[in-house]
Write a structure and sequence with these properties.
The protein has 120 residues and is α+β, with helices and mostly antiparallel strands. It has one domain: Alpha-Beta Complex (Sufe protein. Chain: A), CATH 3.90.1010. It has five helices and three strands. Helix 4 (85-91) packs across helix 5 (100-118). The protein is globular, with a radius of gyration of 13 Å. The structure holds zinc ion. Zinc ion (ZN) binds at residues 33, 35, 57-58, 60-61, 102.
């Protein structure tokens, strides 16, 4: 069902954890497979210098958030905001059709965290 890259990120996800006093925090959930995601970002000079997340969800949600945080790290706020779920899916080498919505969660959580950062 999942390709090798997805499974690798699922087994050994990157950037997992929480953050004390993040500059931005976002939390989103999906009712479809019960995934929830919390995203924390540190921003310095308009760049994402640290990013952590916690995901409770399926393989696709965990792999998506792992690769999305890898992609967002070092990006400017504008670049990170422009990332879409299709960028994430492409970077993963594809996801099963019915699991695409799980990658949307990673995009949404990141955007929520950026929104929170901008509101401060
Ligand atoms: Zn899912």
């Amino acid at each position: 069902m999942y390709n090798e890259k997805v499974l690798q990120h699922f087994k050994d996800p990157h950037n997992v954890g929480t953050m004390e006093n993040p500059d931005g925090y976002g939390e989103v959930g999906s009712s479809e497979c019960g995934d929830t995601m919390k995203m924390y970002i540190k921003v310095d000079d308009n760049k994402i210098t640290d990013i952590k997340y916690q995901t409770y969800g399926c393989c696709a949600a965990i792999a998506s958030s792992s690769i999305a945080t890898d992609m967002a790290l070092g990006k400017t706020i504008e670049e990170a905001q422009a990332m879409s779920k299709m960028d994430i899916v492409q970077e993963l080498g594809g996801l099963p059709e019915k699991k695409i919505h799980c990658s949307l969660l990673a995009e949404d959580a990141l955007k929520e965290a950026i929104k929170d950062y901008k509101s401060k």
